[in-house]
Amino acid sequence: MCGIIGYVGSGDETADILMSGLFNLEYRGYDSAGIALIEPSLTMYKKAGEVTELERSLPSDTVRGAVGIGHTRWSTHGAPSDANAHPHTDCNGDVAVVHNGIIENYQELRAELADSGHEFESETDTEVVPHLIESFLETGANPEHAFRLAIDRIDGSYAIAAVFEDTEAVYAVRKHSPLVLGLGEDGNYLASDVPAFIAHTDRVIYLEDGEFVRLTEDEVVVTNTTGDVLEKTVDTIDWDPQDAGKSGYGHYMLKEINEQPQAIRQCLQGRTSEHQQSVLLEELADLDHDGLVQLVACGTSYHAAMYGEQLLQERGMQAQSFFASEYDADRIAVDNETLVIGVTQSGETADTLSALREANRAGAATLAVTNVVGSSAARECEYVVYIRAGPEISVAATKSFVSQQITLALIASTLADVSLPRFLRALQRLPDHIQRVLDRTTTPAVASEIADSEAYFFIGRGTHVPVALEGALKMKEITYKHAEGFPSGELKHGPLALLTPNTPVIALVTNGGETATKTIGNVNEVAARDAPVIAVTDARESVEGVSDTVLEVPRTHPWLAPVLANVQLQLLSYWVATRLGRPIDKPRHLAKTVTVE
Amino acid sequence: MLPVLSKTILEHVFNALIESGVTEIIVVVGYKRNRIQSHFGSSHRNVPLTYVVQERQLGTGHALLKTRSHIDETCVVINGDQIVGTELIDDVVETHQTTDAVATLGLLNRTEIGEYGGVLLEDNSVSEIIEGPQDDRNYRLNTGVYALEPSVVDTIEATPPSNGEHLLTDAFRKLVEDGEPVRGVVSDGLWVDVAYPWDLLDATERLIDDIDWTHDGKSAVNSSAILHETAVISPSAIIEANCEIEPGAVIGPNVSLGQNVTVGTNAVVERSVVDTDARIGQNATLVDCIVGQGARIGAGTVAPGGPSSVQIRNRVYEDVQLGALLADRVYDGGGSTYVPGTVVGADATIHSGATISGTIGAEAEVYP
Questions:
Q1: Homologous superfamily, domain B201-366
Q2: How far apart are the first and last CA of chain B?
Q3: Which listed residue, of A67, A593, B40, B291, carries a Cα 20 to 30 Å from A344's Cα?
Q4: A245-438: which CATH topology?
Q5: For B221, which DSSP code?
Q6: Is the pTM of this model over 0.80?
Q7: Could you report the predicted ipTM of this complex, rounded to two decimals?
Q8: At what angle do helices A399-416 and A421-440 cross, to 10 degrees?
Q9: What are the residue boundaries of the SIS domain, all occurrences included (chain A) (predicted)?
Q10: Which of A255, A262, A432 lies closest to B293 in CB terms?
């Protein structure tokens, strides 16, 4: 997981363009960063730490060159250090390479290169690439040919870009890692993701697996593995680069939490009609599926997938969710009667893509539920339904989760082909219900009371289970505190031993009925151990006497109550993290899009 | 002010500024700032928006002081609760740039100045500014649209506050006293103040007449709205994304429906503004109404509209054209009747069959 950028222009702006691109790619990783420029000799600057560290270390006026590449890293091989930061060079410092992904056969290549006298400076897998290129250059190959021969030797997943001394071009290739080209007025760009260069151009070409590109100031030449030139379509990005700003909020996370009513309106737009009592997902018009549905996802998206599984089951479908990294088509029953839904915000999550590819090989129909148009998941799956959440920058996912939940609810209704007037009415009201939670939340005060706690436990039953897990994940991610979610019935089968007066339990109790009554029973077990209880509920009176603190949500359809409860949990984590002074948008060790398995 | 007012009006203010060539907008926010920030985000039509928070409302000058670190060149100052046409802004900017002015005021010829500021001009120089003038000298109405040099911020700081508030007009008076060039320009441009909620209905009417709603490819009815074929939509209605208009409903003239609004079978809406996520039930009739975000109007509820007197706090406003003002998330059970001029506070519940008049507080419950 990393972000790469490349640019070929004519003037002295290349370094600035690379640096601003790296800042916009920091959500992909930020434990070290570097750039290399050709002027026409090769100069390189790299530094452990966030991109600002690199910026500080740059000499103020001597960074020149019209051709350059840059990298912001999230460690896979070797700790974050200056030496392990990209770019990496060959022995002579004539070739510099940046890489996102994993080179699986790097150990044998490294041994082979070391035997023939190459000296390595880092512990990374990437460093074998410049040395391989060097070895082919020594046999007389030109830069482009040497680059192709080197790529031919490596196995794994990668987006790689390289620059050569005295050569005014950037060479790049992708396989299983994202790479997109930008066509500008005064030069051309490549990057792991569009925000890196969208301030300069909105005309892009998405590179496919196995495609090479030679980028010069005037042209972009895309070729396949055998070197034939390909005609690529140019897409225009229609989102606004300013969307990536914080809109006056202290953190992207709070901005994105507050954008949820609008995200839901966008998600529902043109997809439901109350009058016709129908859900209209045009994307699935030719999908007629009534067999097994499997959902694969990671992290927060996995919790959305669990929720999707429950709604499919409620509508009488067979459904099962899996951690994408644990999805093994050889062991799990999957065939051409199965529909496999991959849930991934970025559409680039390596584990999810890999599971979808396995499902595809087993003959299953595949459906991507993603936020990113043109992402790998969107392109590789037979069907795609976009969640329309808009750009999400905060590493901790918020609005993409609620948009995934609602998109999956729409998919469940479409697949089961049932008309649910009450549910549709509740969906129309959902944006306003979320707005009400945002307007009236008391989480800042509650967070102040519980910020010093040792650990946090989240409990709920039924459709609240995925949200209990998600609430705990959010708390872990941004507060660095221990947090766990359980089905509330499981509490007494072990975790109860962990409860103390310094471990608040957040209980999700809505919708009345037997489920709520049982959860309240579990809450009583907690109260009896003197652990403080925070109830998230739509009926304050139902938890009176058992809960010290109440976070209220409006009453809605039972299937949507977890969506509202989750907004309170997001805010609770946000405010606890704020009280603790955590770097909320960039939690340690975490990156937004995980493109390694 | 209701969010419905601030959002809609701000959008027009931003549009007018952008069409006048403004390249950066600084928004001073206070009340319900999250709604404004989330609605507009970081930019409007590709022009960056910077938000500056004014926690306490200590006057127009105080608001400008808050933006100090962002102002280093000539700027336009404009109120967020007035609908202003591009022409007026252009007039102010042009006068400012073609004279030596440190401050230029946009003015209108009006026979009634009322409680607004009255400005006396000598040629194009401001000689006096009087709030709510009572004498019959030749005052022009101060629109609150100004062009300023950054140095004016220092004058604001140096001017002692009156009644605890820093007012821009006090700073202008000081500049005039000090002999600095303060100019005024009388414009014919569009200017509608939305001081009171019912002004929004007039303003909407003016806007629908004056503004080309099809700019940047938008039509008055968003393409994602679902309109039943038997619904009747007036050409002077604005319908935002994801609205659903059910069979036989009539969306009459001078209606603005926000995003995700549902209008039920055979309901009639005329000369009304309905905010995001609201729901109008079957057979409801709303005339001259303002409906807040997420409000629910039950089946068969009637607000016939017409002239009325409205009480806001301790003051009664006569002859106001207001059917009903139903604030955010009012829940109306259906079959209710609203006497013209009724104001219902946020989150109030009106149970079925009630007849409502006067002012109902926030979160109140009304039984028939």
A1: Hexapeptide repeat proteins (2.160.10.10)
A2: 29
A3: B40
A4: Rossmann fold (3.40.50)
A5: B
A6: no
A7: 0.72
A8: 170
A9: 280-421, 446-587
A10: A432
